[in-house]
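Consider the following assembly input.
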Amino acid sequence: MHKLEAKDIVKEYTSESGIRKPKILVSEIANGFRDGYYLGYQLFKRDLQASVRQSLLGFLWHFIPAIITASIWIFLNGQKVVTIQNVPMDYPAFVLTGSILWALFSESVNKPLQRFQGAKGMLTKLNFPRESLIIAAYFDVLFSAFLKLIVLVPALLLFGITPSFDWILAFLGILGLIFLGLSIGMLLVPVGMLYSDVSKGISFVLQISLYLSPVIYPMKDSGWVGMMQKLNPASSFIEIIRSSLGHYNFNLSAELILFSIIGLILFFIGIILLKLTLSSVLERIGV
Amino acid sequence: MHTKISNTQTHDFSNSKMNDKEVLIEAENVSKKFARNLKSSLKFGIQDIFREIVGKPKIQRLRNSEFWALKDVSFTVRRGECLALIGHNGAGKSTLLKMLNGLLKPDQGSIRIKGRVAALIELGAGFNPILTGRENIYNNAAVLGFTKEEVNQKINEIIDFSELNEFIDSPVQSYSSGMKVRLGFAVAAQMEPDVLIIDEVLAVGDLGFRIKCLNRIGELLQNSAVIFVSHSMTQVARVCTHGLLLKKGQIEHMDNDIGSVISAYYSAFGNENERIIGGENFKLNHFILKNHLSQQIEKGAIINHSEKIEINVSLDSLIETKEVCVKVFFINSEMRLILDISSELALSSFTAKNNILNLNLITDPLYLNAGNYSLSFIIIEKGTNQRLYRHDNLFELTIASNYVSWGDYVTAGTWS
């Protein structure tokens, strides 16, 4: 364990709110990330190993849903059941990229709550750095993004899209999308641990907002849909990624900057909120 | 393996020698409330979250459906001391442990903990049943705060300690529950904490492994401040230096003399009802106990260790019997039969006269360990060994002694 003298670590627990001692709060969070890193990695590795070992399709599950969603839309569009107009790139490539990115975003939003709920038993019995669960969530989603890229990149090449330096921007955009999703997800953890409505709500809202996002059809400039798309925090990230991959114009710079800043703020709020409120939450949910 | 443990032992000792006797755990007026009703509890949860965010302290008064699960508990534990936390189910032991471990925040009062804390509250946290024992050692160790290098270094020691060499590469879901506990304890045993919190985890596993666990805890005891929660008074008497008896969230009794806390715990047990098991072939008229001065004693009376007692019994026989043998059982509070006083062994048998059976027994000196005993009275037909009558919880008495032991039978012997 940590090679510290006993006198170096003194912990005090009182009824006072942790926010009253911001210095201690911040240093606890920082220590939590440092001390919890290995545990976070280990939890990620554990669940990955287990999921692969007890499954025939293993990693394939990371892209099957997105590929099927995309295939359905390619099929519908091809059959002229629905006609998607003004697509700035080859439609199959467009919708496949969109679906995969949306799947990644959904996963990012869901992950923190999933991680915390999955570790409920441990949380109520042991005092380990809670930040490790956030680290594990990051590993989960980053790994999933890596797997998705392994499918997406060859698919794009197959659809005749040529790689360029813009792709680097796309990869950065993916990191931004993940960061935003996880920050939103972290914010939902405290209340989500108390009430099951939250996790049900998340999946419902994500399903609905798929149709209000530039996933299966392109951005609209005007009208209600256009406005909804712009208010959707994921839109600008999906657009920057896809336009960089597919070489078309990106014109949501303002939204991208705005939602990047919001994402950053949400991250800090989320982490402080978790630190402050988790013990109040745990005493309500578990013995 | 044993030498390895003693190595870390000496290392730890040299580390802490100069800090000897320092207070590592300090609890001051610690209180905690819970809500009886889930809906209100969740609502208050949201309220607490909100107050936490805006920097207000917790609400001190009781809200609707709330009660004090723990009220004004104060104590200190120094390095080298072991505090037994005892009490009935729901007395607040687990709540207190969770606060000491930093999982729950007190609603009032404060807790100060110095040094590295290890909690043996749940063994095998972080295990994934699909993965192998070896893989799960890493998972569990990570949860307990070990680094990968430390686990790599200790992995053989852990496997040896668990005695699971053969199965270490099989998935944990194929383990028996005892095997899982062994693996969990083997990992936890590697911790070298300043403050150790133990919650009855030792009640599982087979005898050999339990002894091994107790030995390891005994080693940890010397250099740590320990809080030990257990319902087994034999374990408490063996391990602890102090005792704290909780009752409905409050301190009922706290003492340096562990024996007095244990007897307070025993006397807090409600009297079990008398019970006749099987056929009612006899009707009990009286069952009278007398101490060594031939004074009649009441139920629950205290008898000094190694005194004799006298028992008078009178029964009406409701059936035709020939000769019968009788026994008196002393059953301790862990429901184990400790003493069997049998007339058969004394080669005596009795016959009812005019359907009345009168018996008198003078016991040998009662070398029983201090504690509460309940008495049962049994009648057996001689020859057929058929049980004719069994009356449980007929009488209760407490054996008192200044000497603390975890043996069942305690004598002085003759030494020279």
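Residues 1-7 of chain A have pLDDT under 50 and may be disordered. Ask yourself how this observation constrains the way the partners meet.
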